[in-house]
Amino acid sequence: MKGFARAMMMAMILGAGLSACHENLDERTERECKEYTEKYCPAPVDANVISDSMTFDRGSKTICYYYSLRGEADTLLTGDAEKDIHKALLSDVMNAPTLIRYKEAKYNFRYIYFSSKNKGKKLYDYLFTPKDYTK
User: Fold this and answer.
1) Mean pLDDT of 106-113
2) Which helix (H) or strand (E) holds 126?
3) Please, which residues bridge with residue 65 across strands?
4) 33, 37, 38: which is closest to 107 by C-alpha?
5) Which of 36, 91, 101, 115 lies at a CB distance of 3.0 to 4.6 Å from 121, suitable for a disulfide?
6) Do 65 and 110 contact (CB within 8 A), yes or no?
């Protein structure tokens, strides 16, 4: 799980292209998320994870990553397994150099995972705020 989150963050930064000089960070982030989704999604992250889209909500300053899980990953994990996913994603947010400008702007990062076999069923929903990633 750790690698795919990092890959998606890198792709967002590297794949988005150049921004216009007059854009502020919120405008740029919103545009880049939309462009990334239109250009690359849906995209397989690995055998069991598909990147569906990425959005930015200006009001809450939240970058949201939407994924679908399939195969053996398409199940709701509980207890220690679920905590391990949360911990791995938080570690990625805390350590990703590509997120520095967003963390400096105190953005939130949200990861939502849906089931592929049960369309519309949300399996996981993690929100990381500055309080979480500046520990």
Assistant:
1) 98
2) strand 122-128
3) 54, 111
4) 33
5) 115
6) yes
pTM here is 0.82
What is the Cα–Cα distance from 60 to 26, expressed in whole angstroms?
A: 11
Reading the block at residue 2, the tokens are 């750790």
| pLDDT (tens digit per residue) in 61-71 | 999 999 999 99
Q: Which two tokens stand for residue 85?
A: 């996913």
Using the structure block, give the residue that is written with the tokens 């949200």. Answer: 110
Task: Return the number of other C-beta atoms located less than 10 Å from residue 81's C-beta.
Answer: 10
Q: Are 49 and 67 in contact (CB under 8 A)?
A: yes
How many other C-beta atoms lie within 10 A of the C-beta of residue 93? 23
> Tell me, what's the pLDDT at 36?
96
The dihedrals phi and psi of 17, each to the nearest 5 degrees, come to 90, -175
